[in-house]
Amino acid sequence: MEKVLIVVDMQNDFVDGSLGTKEAVKIVPAVTDKVKAAINNNTMVIFTKDTHYSNYLETAEGKNLPVEHCIKGSNGWEIIPALNEYAQNVIEKNTFGSTVLPDKIKEYDEIELIGLCTDICVISNALLLKAHFPEKDIYVDASCCAGVTPESHNNALEAMKMCQIKINN
Description:
By secondary structure, the protein is of the alpha/beta class.
C-alpha cells in the first residue's frame, strides 16, 4: 500500500508570523517528528504552500481576512526552519484547497494530512481529496494540526469525521 503524507501550510506566517498562534507553535515538534518518520519509512511527503501576492488585500480572501500573509518571496511565505530541509516536493496554492493536489497523489492508496490551519486549509484539502477519492482512506492527525482557535480546530475535526475522514490523535 502506497501512502502519502501531506503537510499543509507549515509556513512562518501561520506558525509565529502574522497569523501565528501558540497552538501552531506547539505542534511544530510533533509535525517535525512525523515528517522525519515518514521520510525514514520511504513515504512520499508533499508540502503545500499558501501563496499570495502584493495584491492580496484586493482579492476576495483578502477582503474577508485583511491580514497580509504568505506573500511570495517573503519570510512569512517560507516553510518553517524546522521543516525546510524536508520540503522537497512543494505545491503552491493561492486558495484554501489545492486543485492540483488530487492529480499529484492519485496513485496513493492512503492519504494523511497534517498542518495548518485545521479549520481552513486542512479541512479544505481533506474534503477536496475525499470528493476526488471517495473509496480511499483519508486521515488527519489531530495532534499535528492547529486551528485558528482551539474551538474551530475541534469543530473542523468533527466536520471531517462526519465526512468519513479518519481522525487520529
